Amino acid sequence: MSRPSNPTDPTDPRGSGRPAPSASPDGAAVEKRSERRVIVLVGLVLPLGVVAASVALMIGWLPRLPDPVATHWGPSGEPDAFGSPWAAIGLLAVIGVVFSVLMTYIALRSVAHGAAPASVRLTVVFSPVFAVLLSVIIAGSLGIQVGLDDATEAGGLFWIFAAAVGAAAVTGLLTWLVLPSRGSHPSAPSPEPAVALEPGERAVWTRTVSAPRGILGVPVAVGALGLMPVFLDPAMWWSSALLLLLAALISLLLVARVTVDGSGLVVRSLLGFRMLRVRLADVVSAASITVDPLAEFGGWGMRFDSRGRRGVVLASGPAMQVERVSGGPIVVTVQDAPTGAALLNGLVAQG
After folding, report:
1. pLDDT of residue 71
2. Rounded to an integer, what distance in angstroms lies between the CA atom of residue 254 and that of residue 269?
3. Looking at the structure, do residues 63 and 102 belong to the same domain, yes or no?
4. Coil, helix or strand for 179?
5. Which tens digits make up the pLDDT trace of 269-283?
6. Helical ranges in 26-157 per DSSP H
7. Are 227 and 300 within one domain?
8. Do residues 313 and 293 lie in contact, with contact meaning Cβ atoms separated by under 8 Å?
9. Hey, which end of the chain has fewer CB within 10 Å, N or C?
10. Are residues 77 and 220 in the same domain?
11. Domain-embedded: residue 94
12. Residue 121 and residue 177: Cα distance in Å, rounded?
């Protein structure tokens, strides 16, 4: 008796000849490429198109604009500052391009590092929303001056701001619906194998971590900016003092010492200020992961992300992720993270 053909059996010559349905190994890659294309279209192409159209419109208005034009309105709604219309055009062009490129870059890196879908969508949506908001405000402020001989005759900006907010809200809603919402949170990483410790044995692991050189330049820039007020006007010494204090505080938070010992995990600033602590009794497990601060946490310092993780994120690369009893995971970027995580697991096992 002949065996019935099985159309789903790729080894059955009497079947359809088509392989049995199976998950394509390239399916996830194709989906990610598609998601990246949508991100570039919505986060970069769309806002740049809005900015380009607004810039072209304002350039077309130049022959009919007063010179100078009103560039700022006071609390009374009357113009109180004036300048070249090209300043407004250049401002929109530069800010619009830089912001769109930055948001798209962050979103693409976030996708590559498995960030939560909602976080990626929010980052992308913010790009066209900001472009529309800024374009309507700047173009609108010039539009109400078209045909005027004197910029002091320009009216208030209330309806311009109202239109900008409304247009930005509609843009945000539509782009949110267009962006893909598929995806899931990555599973928790596997804990590092615990270091074997004898009962009563003590062990300590410590490392210093600092932000990249470019980020370390931020407090220097703030400090330099802080010197300007006192040079311009000695009576503004208090403003300089505040900015210099801010620069000092920022610098202290960009370098930290990470320690694992019998008390748990502790992160302290250079002056010994405790930035973060996880008691040993609160530790479930510790794992070594790789972190991209900008893509996953939106920056450097004491951060949190859309997955419920928080911690001290100062550098790209290796990090410890500590699962806790009492809350979400704690992330600390540090070199030789596998050793620190393994020791923490060993201390937990030791009890």
Report:
1. 86
2. 8
3. yes
4. coil
5. 888 889 999 999 999
6. 27-40, 46-61, 85-112, 117-143
7. no
8. yes
9. N
10. no
11. yes
12. 9
Q: How far apart are CA 82 and CA 69, in angstroms?
A: 5
User: 233: which 2 tokens?
Assistant: 């006007």
Domain hosting 37: range is 27-178
CATH of the domain at 191: 2.30.29.30
pLDDT in tens, 11-48: 444 444 444 444 444 655 666 777 788 889 999 999 99
Q: Count of CB atoms within 10 A of residue 40's CB?
A: 15
Domain-embedded: residue 216? yes
Residue 218 included in any domain:
yes
The set of residues, in sequence order, having a beta carbon less than 8 Å from that of 210 and lying 6+ positions away, is 216, 254, 255, 256, 314, 315
At position 231, the amino acid (one-letter code) is: F
Q: Are residues 344 and 237 in the same domain?
A: no
**pTM metric for this prediction:** 0.60
Phi and psi for 293 in degrees, rounded to 5? -55, -45
Task: State whether 333 and 311 are in the same domain.
Answer: yes
Helix and strand element counts for the chain (H, E) = 8, 11
Note every long-range contact of 70-77, with CB atoms under 8 Å and residues 24 or more positions apart, other chains counting.
70/141, 70/145, 70/151, 70/152, 70/154, 71/141, 73/156, 73/157, 77/155, 77/156, 77/157, 77/158
3-class secondary structure, 312: strand
User: Where is the domain boundary, 200, 227, 253?
Assistant: 253
User: Where would I find the H helices in the chain?
Assistant: 27-40, 46-61, 85-112, 117-143, 158-178, 213-232, 237-252, 337-350
Residue 11 and residue 19: Cα distance in Å, rounded? 8
Q: How many domains are there within the chain?
A: 3
